Amino acid sequence: MTIAIVGAGIGGLAAAAALAGAGHRVTVFDRFEAPAPVGSGLVIQPVGMTVLDSLGVADEALRMGNRVHRMLGREARSGRRVLDVAYDAPGVPRFGLGIHRAALFDILHAAALRAGAEIRPGHRVERVEAGWVVHAKGTDGPFDMVVDASGAGSLLSPMRARSLGYGALWATVDWPAQTDLPYNELRQVYRRADRMLGVLPIGRVPGQQARKCAIFWSLPAGAYDDWQATGLEAWRVEASALWPDYAPFAAQITDPAQMTMARYSHGTLRRPWSDGGRLVHIGDAAHRASPQLGQGANMALLDAWALARALERAQGDVALAARWYAQARRWHVRGYQGMSRLFTSQYQSDSRMLPLLRDRVLFPLSQVSPLPGMLSRLVCGDLLPPLGSLSD
C-alpha cells in the first residue's frame, strides 16, 4: 500500500517505522524545514516501551534515557506525602523511562529511515482530498491511506478540544552536582493545586554526555505574560521557598526563553477516521488530555502500533483497518482521559477543597491494599487493555 503520514512527531515517526517495516510505501510530510522535536522531557511508560521494543529501538531508548522507579509528591508547607506510586507495586519489576524528546525523536527518525520511509520536510499539509495530500508546494498522491499525526495543531482533524485552565513551563537543565534528590524518581511538590513544581531525570541529550533533567512549573494557561513580567529572580525565590531542593535546578534558568510554555486541552474524536478509512487520525490529532498520568507520548505510540496491526490483519482493506484501529483504542483512550480529567482538578486548579480531599482522604486510601497495585498499573498504562481486540 501507499501511505502518507502527516507530521514527523513521536506518533508519526513510530507509525512510519511500523508501516514501512511491514512493507508499505510510506511518505512522511512535515511542515518544518528540518524535522525536529518540540518540548523537553517525557516518560515512556511500560506500555510505550512495549511498542519501542516491537519497533526494535527499546535498547537505544534505554541507553539514552533514565529509568524511573517511583513518583513521589509532597505538600509544600507540611512536607507530607500526597502522591507515592512505585512502578513495581504489583511485584513485577517495571519502570518508566524518562527521556528527552530530542533523544526519542532521533531514535524513531532513524528507525523510520531504516525501515524505508521517505521523509519530506518543508511540506505544510493543508488538506487531504480523496487520498491526495495538498500542501503549499503542490499535491501528492493518491495514497491508499493518509495518517494524520500532526498533533494538537492539526489542520486535518475536525476535533474541537476544550482548553484547560492550567498549563506548565518546562525546561531542560543539568543534573546538579549538589542535590539530595535521587536520580531514579520523579519528584513533585504542590501548594494546594495552584502551584506544582517537579523534577524528572531524563538521561542524556543527543550530542551531550552530562546527565539531564526536565523541570516544570505549573501555571494558569493565561498567566505566561505575567510570569515573564514578574521576572526570573522573583520566580526563583518563590520556587525555592516552596521547595528548597528545587533551588539548584531553578538557578540554571537565566533567560525566560529557556522555559517553554505548554498549554493543554481535552477532547476526543468519536470516530478517528473518515473517507472510508483513507484518512485516519492518531495521537493528539485524535485525542488530547492533560499530562497528569504521563500518557501523552505513550498514547501516540500505541495508536501507531494499533494502526499497523489493524492494517496487517485487515489485509489491505483500509475501511476495515480504520474501524478495527478505532475499536481497539477506544476504551483505553476514553478510560485514561476520564482518569486524567479526575486527577487534573486535584493537581492543577484554583480549588481549595479538592487538594484537601486529595491530601487527607484520597492519598491515605491509595496506600491501602489493593490500591497501590492498581495505581501502579494505572501509571504503567495497562490498567485497561491498551490494544483491545488487537492484543495478542
TrEMBL record:
Record-annotated membrane-spanning stretches: none
Family annotation (SUPFAM superfamilies): FAD/NAD(P)-binding domain
Organism: Ponticoccus alexandrii
Keywords: Monooxygenase, Oxidoreductase
Name of the protein in question: NAD(P)-binding protein
UniProt keyword Oxidoreductase present: yes
Annotated ranges, domain FAD-binding: 2-129, 265-312
Domain of life: Bacteria
